[in-house]
Amino acid sequence: MKTEKKRYKIKEFSTFFLALPVLFCLLFCNGCSKSFQKTVTTFACDTVVTITYYDKKDEKAVNDALSYLSELELVFSRTKENSELYALNEALHKGEDFVVGKDLYQALVMSYEAAKESDGAFDFTLGNVSDLWNFTGETPHVPDAAVLAEALSHTGCEKIHLEGIFVTDAEESNPGGIVSSEDASLSVDLGGMAKGYMGQKLKEQLMEAGVTSALLNLGGNVVAIGKKPDGTKFQIGIAKPEKDSSEYVSTVGIANEAAVTSGIYQRYFEENGKWYHHILDPKTGVPVESDVASVTVIYRDSGMADILSTTMFVTGPDYAETYVKNCPQDITVIYVMKDGSLKEFSNK
Ligand code: ADP
Ligand code: MG
What we know:
The protein is an alpha+beta fold and 348 residues long.
């Protein structure tokens, strides 16, 4: 059988979709008020990262945030051989326990709880399965069914054990916890939440440094600090679910919240005329097949918003509707369906 493979580097594109409407608006406002506004751009975590700020005095804080981002990347990258997560996976593969620092531990605890709450729809142990699909590599492809089944048998959050370390001088020694697994073939992958978690940490550091108004965009994970200097919300565009489209289907205003999107147009490849995107059904190890093109979650904590966007992509709208109803915090969830229609749930 002839196999045709096409791969589109659409990650940067979708970042562009989400960032562009924001930038249009900000530039326009800036033109009106002639107030200060600056956007710094860098490439980290395999995506474009921007920070827009509105007060010249924040320049140092923003530069410090970019350094902090490099540090966090060396915690969460699954592919960089000098990262903490890489070292954790190496240790697990040798059957050893591994001590992780505060950030990795916090992220693992959040992910573990999310996995439990979603009945496994959010699964941070799919590393081996993602590797087979190789979405981030040069040659992504549909894996052999038997190989996929074997990799899938080495997944499951119940196989991971987390034990917190408590010490008195917590800030000094950066205590985290001990991670172990009974399955030496399991690989942790925090790709479903790491950018959101990092965005939240950057926001917290910037706020501690006195920044009161800024917008961070980590490859479509948008995090607002406060409001715009004119007191209005930041406007975020939600991309139209069409390849190569620069239009957006809706805009949403955020203040001091995060807006995080998971979708089929962020990272995918085509084989034999079929699209394969990078969000996997943990039950089958195959990309989720549904009517959903993307889901955007607006929530106060960016790490949680990232977890929820991936989870709600897997579960579909019914789960999201119930989640939103029962959520004690303000939350808005916007689905873009493949036919272009929208489904919105909000408890605000
Ligand atoms: P993006 O990384 O584009 O922001 P997501 O936050 O939805 O999008 O994360 C997708 C990534 O999460 C995948 O590339 C993979 O690393 C990981 N992943 C895939 N399926 C799942 C799942 N069911 N649960 C948790 N993480 C997943
Ligand atoms: Mg996510």
